C-alpha cells in the first residue's frame, strides 16, 4: 500500500504543479486544490502506516474518498498529467479498499 500511496502523492504533486503552467489556469483551480488535498491525505496515511499504528481504518476510508474525488476531477481534463494523476488515484483507492477487505 505504501508504494501506491507514494505514487499517488508524486502524481498529485506533479499534476498540481503542471496545472499551474496550463494556458487557462482558472479552469484548473479545482484540479489544483484537489491534487493538493489528495497528496496531503495520502502523505498523512503513508506516514501513519510507517509507524505501524493500527487504528487507521477511518483514515484509509477518507483516503479512498479523496483519491476518487481527485480522479473524478482529473478525468475532466485532457492533459496527460491529469490522466496520469487520475490513474494513480484510482489505483491508490483500489489498494486501500483491498487493505480494508
- Tell me, rounded to a whole number, the average pLDDT: 96
CATH topology: Substrate Binding Domain Of Dnak, Chain:A, Domain 2
The value of Rg in angstroms is 13 Å
Give me the strand/helix succession. Answer: HHHH
As a percent range, the share of strand residues is under 5%
The biggest beta sheet is recorded as: none
The outline comes out as: elongated
First-to-last CA distance: 13 Å
Query: Based on the structure given, which CATH architecture is correct?
Result: Up-down Bundle
- Quantity of strands, as a count: 0
How many helices does DSSP assign?
A: 4
The CATH class: Mainly Alpha
Structural class: mainly alpha
Task: Extract low-pLDDT stretches.
Answer: none
State the helical fraction.
over 70%
How many discrete domains? 1
